[in-house]
Amino acid sequence: MNFEFRDGISSTLSSPLSSPVAAGRADGSEYGSPKSPAAAKRVDEAGEKLAAEMLVFNQVAAELKAKRDGSVGLAGRCAQVLEVATELFGVAPTWTAFYRETVGVDGVVRALFTDAAEMREYECSDAHCKVLEMLTALRSRDLPDCDPNEPQRMITVRIPKSLHDSICKEANDLQVSVNKLCITRLIQRVDRSLIPSSTQKRRGRRPGAEYAKATAAECAMPSADADSASA
Questions:
Q1: 3-state secondary structure (DSSP) of residue 157
Q2: How far is the CA of 70 from the CAs of 66, 73, 76, 148, 154, in angstroms?
Q3: Cα–Cα distance measured from residue 221 to residue 57, given in angstroms and rounded to the nearest whole number
Q4: I need a labelling partner for 154 at 20 to 30 A (CA). Which of 5, 15, 29, 69 fits?
Q5: Domain coordinates of the chain in residue numbers?
């Protein structure tokens, strides 16, 4: 069966603050209904505040990137990750921005731990646990779901009904949405010994040359001019 993750992962590229649908949710009005001047003003002010906070966050992130030193030992690099994460945690306007600059593909972790074995050692360190705790704290706050500086994606996962039922029950027991639970699972470290091996040909979509080309094209596209993009 098809199972879609929609909490913070969708095909739209537009900012949540620039989206008419999202704006309708933000001011309490029905989808597609006209907003009052006061509600529109609140949305505009929220957008300006988020833009200002993103500017500060990006400046801090750039300064911290310039100070990175990958020549020190593993313990020293773990300490650097924790220092960067602590600084960014204090100014992060969205959990997505924090994730991107810490454990994301272009974040400080992957920049300092390029070797797979050392990456596994880092993921078992106290520093990594503390970074995940910071990320969880940011996700728990009443922050914007989306980062206007980063495109969003939607993924579809085929899973059996029994697994889907288990996920739904767990989410219900934890009193969180299925989407939030799934994102939480995706953020966690994966025990490689529990990933099944297979001699069969890999099926389904996977990152490759076309994916990289599409990503580069979307990054060059002004988000204000792009209403949506394919997953």
A1: strand
A2: 11, 8, 9, 30, 34
A3: 22
A4: 29
A5: 2-23+36-188
Alpha helices in 13-73 (DSSP H): 20-26, 37-66
pLDDT in tens, 47-89: 788 889 999 999 999 999 999 999 999 999 999 999 999 999 9
Q: Quick one: 75 exposed, middle or buried, by C-beta within 10 A (0-12, 13-18, 19+)?
A: exposed
Structure-token pair, residue 90: 């204090």
3-class DSSP assignment, residue 15: coil
H helices, E strands: number in the chain: 10, 2
Strands 2-5 and 155-158: antiparallel
The pTM for the full model equals 0.66
Q: Residue 155 and residue 135: Cα distance in Å, rounded?
A: 21
